[in-house]
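note to self — DONT lose this again. spent like an hour looking for the file last time. sequence + predicted structure for the chain T wanted, 171 res
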Amino acid sequence: MSPSYLLKIVTVGAASVGKTSIIIRYSTGSFREHYSPTLGVGFAYKKMEVDEDSVNLQIWDLGSQDFLERTRANYYLGAQGVIFMFDVTSWESLNEVIDWKNEVDRNLDDYSAILVANKTDLAMERVVSKEEGQKIASQLGVDYIETSVRLDMNVNKAFEMIARSIISSFH
């Protein structure tokens, strides 16, 4: 019989990079066109298979406003995985990933992480190249993936990557 895992993942990044959208797309399959900031914390639950293993993901969507930092600290507790996310049309959102890494490191000791570059469908507005995203990911020591939540490109793969990374840390 295959092992069953319950994995807690937190999703962090600058405002409007697509954290809530990627979680909604992954957990329900739908895409939300309008933007509304997460004030506090959102939550989704999704079952998946990784090879022979049954995996239950608890995905926490942490609001990005500065005044929520003390609130967010409580939600890092017990997380095994972190999705750092930025928007390829915003240098600022990529630069903020370093601050997010520092915040996560203050709150979590041992975790797996990936860096997700979102909004790759906005090719004409893109300012951050794949190479630059990969460079930041290797500086952080994490895997890198590019997604378009709108086009549902690599969304499932991103969650599979983080789940695999966490599970491999158990062995």
